[in-house]
Write a structure and sequence with these properties.
heterodimer, A: mainly beta, 11 strands, B: 5-stranded mixed sheet, 0% helix
Chain lengths: 114, 110
């Protein structure tokens, strides 16, 4: 157990639907990062939050949004889902907002869009 | 962040040392070298990182050349559970983002 909790572990939904993925960071970590891993794209950075504030955006689609709450957990919202959104979604956390830190990743949410 | 080059795949016998190379010839002075690994479909796992000096922890050793243009991750006694994709990442300390390449698939054989 890495200390980063992601729920649900698996999610199957239909095209056009909306889903919410949840991440609880490791205790004491203020930063949360979201990554998407599909078969053909590898691990892609989506977005970074630090202590409730958005700090950096990567290749995140406009149909996707995220937020980090006061208790530091984060949610990734995916809407108008397409078949191509099927992927593993990982959350990671770290103590700081960059710098000399390693990230701790959760075990991921496997999203299947049918 | 500087680009890295890794072999696509490597094999290693169980119990032997696994030496995974990484080339980062365009690295700048304030960029760190990080190593992560991903065991099939699990979340990536942090292994080790360094700036200039060689580093060692309970998982591995990191050897960075004096000119910092390349590095080697060493797993001293590889086990079957070390079979994974290993990612070498170069990142500035002020950059929040980890950029993953394709990594090296290390297969540890019995």
């Amino acid at each position: 157990d890495s200390g980063v909790t992601q729920t649900p572990k698996h999610l199957i939904t239909a095209t056009g639907q909306r889903v919410t993925l949840r991440c609880s960071p490791r205790s004491g970590d203020l930063s949360v990062y979201w990554y998407q891993q599909s078969l053909d794209q590898g691990l892609q950075f989506l977005i970074h939050y630090y202590n409730g504030e958005e700090r950096a955006k990567g290749n995140i689609l406009e149909r996707f949004s995220a937020q980090q709450f006061p208790d530091l957990h984060s949610e990734l919202n995916l809407s108008s889902l397409e078949l191509g959104d099927s992927a593993l979604y990982f959350c990671a956390s770290s103590v700081g907002s960059g710098g000399n830190y390693g990230y701790t990743f959760g075990s991921g949410t496997r999203l299947t869009v049918v | 962040d500087a680009k890295t080059t890794q072999p696509t795949s490597m094999d290693c016998a169980e119990g032997r040392a696994a030496n995974l190379p990484c080339n980062h010839s365009t690295i700048s002075g304030n960029e760190y070298v990080y190593w992560y690994r991903q065991i099939h479909s699990q979340g990536p796992q942090y292994i080790i990182h360094g700036l200039k000096n060689n580093e060692t922890n309970e998982m591995a050793s990191l050897i960075i050349t004096e000119d910092r243009k390349s590095s080697t991750l060493i797993l001293p006694h590889a086990t079957l559970r070390d079979t994974a994709v290993y990612y070498c990442i170069v990142r500035m300390g002020s950059n929040y983002k980890l950029t993953f390449g394709k990594g090296t698939l290390l297969t540890v054989n019995p």
